[in-house]
Amino acid sequence: MNEPIIELRNISKSFGSVLALSGVNLHVNDHEVLGLLGDNGAGKSTLIKIISGVHAPDSGEIYVRGQLQKKWDVNIARECGIETVYQDRALAEQQSITRNIFMGREKSGFLGFLDLRKERNEAEELMRNIGFTSRVFSPDSVVFTLSGGERQGVAIVRALHFKAELIILDEPTTALSLTESEKVFNFVAHARDGGASCVFISHNIYHSYDISDRFVVLDRGQTLLETDKSQITADELVKSMQDIARSGHAK
Amino acid sequence: MSTTEKTPRPAALPDQRTSKILVKFMRNNRRPLSALVFFVVLIAIFIAANPPLFLNSLIYNAVFVSLPISITLVVPLVFIVTAGEIDLSFPSVVGICAWAFAAGIRANWPPMLCVLAALAVGAAAGLVNGFLITRVKLSSLVATLGMNFLLRGLIHIGNQGYGITVSQLRDTPFFNFFVGDLSGFPVQMIWGILFAAVGWLLFSRHRFGAQVAVVGDNQDSAREMGINVNRVKTAAYVYMGLAAAMAGLFSTLINSTFYPTTGDGYLLSVLAAVFVGGTPTWGGAGTVVGGVIGAFVVGFIETGIIASGLTGYYTQFFYGLIIILSLISHRFNQGRFRY
């Protein structure tokens, strides 16, 4: 069996006096969708920001395909094929769709000058692929003018573009309509069928149960439950999460 | 809902297509265009007020003597404002760079070496600003205000009120290269336009400009997408410092003297030029071309008012009036109003 795409060992992180994560272990295998569950404030977003390189852990180790990573930041994580769709979507509202897709990874040639035509063409193709066929907007449209679902689409298109091996989606369905959420689920299934793995973060089990293969429940900075979908029904999962929330540990 | 039949769309006629391109161009360049209209109206009023003067190239060449200083300063300031920050220290950076240049000339250094010294001092000032803002995390408004006093204070302590003459440079090839005269047209204006053109390329066609806009738009997003926010901001301040050094060089050469007050008068007029040009105050958007047009507007106000027959007492009043009117015109020309 292959080494996990990424493995975190004994990760801790605190912000000032707040201990956000204490000794978390987590791994993601090939071709799986990992449902990362937990109540608000459980440490889910902190954990994924450590995986994506935005935050550096205070202690603990990160392995990519079995290799210990001594340096870890956003750009290294991306080079390892890890893309993240953040809860806040990480968009720049006054910029065009094209500029948002390529931000931080601009297509530039001679002396850092931009290849605007190439960026625009690739953006257009990506938008078509994900079903952004509306006449109303073009790659030049400013993100400010898009709806919530369309913005999520831009964030997802961006993650998709760079041939990710692992796509992390942080609460991707929050504030989306039912049909828009359905599109996100289709996207996750599509990405898995294409050979990628996903981490799907949610505090609503019914959102992530159907598409996930495995679940990890995080509570107060610790992983308290880890289980395959075959071992547990959605209702049992809800029940054990409620137990965890009440008692602070798994039964 | 609609019962209209589907008819094949007719191919756009050539003039239809041009008008479409024109509309798109106007929409994409709304801010600089509105600044340009403002400038044209202003000049039209001046011409109406005093035709013989304003239909003669003399008055334009007179303004063009010192206008390049404002142009050189306004371009990087657009970057800084777009990055969501501000710089109030550039007048003193101009001064301290001019001092470095003049002191080098007095010590009989080769003039080009003195230019390099001025550029180095400007870059260092930019690094200090960047450090205070990104590492010490001071507000740029207050940090650069402090730097403005601090550097001006250093100039005064070091010079005790005396200037340094560089009149020995007059009419040397070095002098003519930077601030010579092409049958009445000041050479420095060519440098100013070149500087602005490079600034426009950096802003609109280069990673640096793209990242400046994203950083000013949403720092957290920029960070999450792997942009080194601190480095981008510091680079913008270093750019400002290098430009201030060029401005100090022009100012010293034009006056043949370094004054301890060199650069002082540019604070408010250059800031005004940025906003008159259509760069909004909130970061994430900006226009270099607009900023340059803003520098033209501001540069012509004083000359125009006096040439129109009003006394100098009126200049500040009209200065303020014109700035406010131009901001109102941008306000109503934003398309969709932000928040």
Description:
The complex is a heterodimer of chains A (251) and B (339). Chain A is an alpha/beta fold and 251 residues long. Chain A contains 8 helices and 10 strands. A 6-stranded mixed beta sheet of chain A has the order 6-7-8-3-9-10, with helices on both faces. The longest helix of chain A is centred in the C-terminal third of the chain and has 16 residues, at 178-193. The mean pLDDT of chain A is 87. Chain B has 339 residues and is mostly helical. Chain B is built from 15 helices and 4 strands. In chain B, the strands form 2 sheets. In chain B, strands 1-4 form a two-stranded antiparallel sheet. Chain B has a two-stranded antiparallel ribbon with strand order 2-3. The model of chain B is unreliable at 1-8 (pLDDT under 50).
Short description:
The complex is a heterodimer of chains A (251) and B (339). With 251 residues, chain A is of the alpha/beta class.
Give structural attributes.
heterodimer, A: 251 residues, alpha/beta, Rossmann fold, 6-stranded mixed sheet, 4-stranded antiparallel sheet, globular, B: 339 residues, mainly alpha, ABC transporter involved in vitamin B12 uptake, BtuC, two-stranded antiparallel sheet, 15 helices, 4 strands, disordered N terminus
Largest sheet of chain A: 6 strands, mixed
Mean pLDDT over the full residue set of chain B: 91
Strand percentage of chain B lies at under 5%
Name of the CATH architecture of chain B: Orthogonal Bundle
CATH class of chain B: Mainly Alpha
Which sequence of SSEs, written as H and E, runs from N to C of chain A?
EEEHEEHEHHHEHEHEEH
In the CATH hierarchy, the architecture of one domain in chain A is 3-Layer(aba) Sandwich
Gyration radius of chain A, to the nearest Å? 19 Å
- What is the terminal-to-terminal distance of chain A? 31 Å
CATH class of one domain in chain A: Alpha Beta
Largest interface: A-B, 32 and 24 residues
The fold-level CATH name of chain B is ABC transporter involved in vitamin B12 uptake, BtuC
* Helical run tally of chain A: 8
CATH homologous superfamily grouping of one domain in chain A: P-loop containing nucleotide triphosphate hydrolases
User: Structural class from helices and strands of chain A?
Assistant: alpha/beta
Strand content of chain A: 15-25%
Strand order of the largest sheet of chain B: 1-4
Taking pLDDT < 50 over at least 5 consecutive residues as the criterion, the unreliable ranges of chain B are 1-8
Oligomer: heterodimer
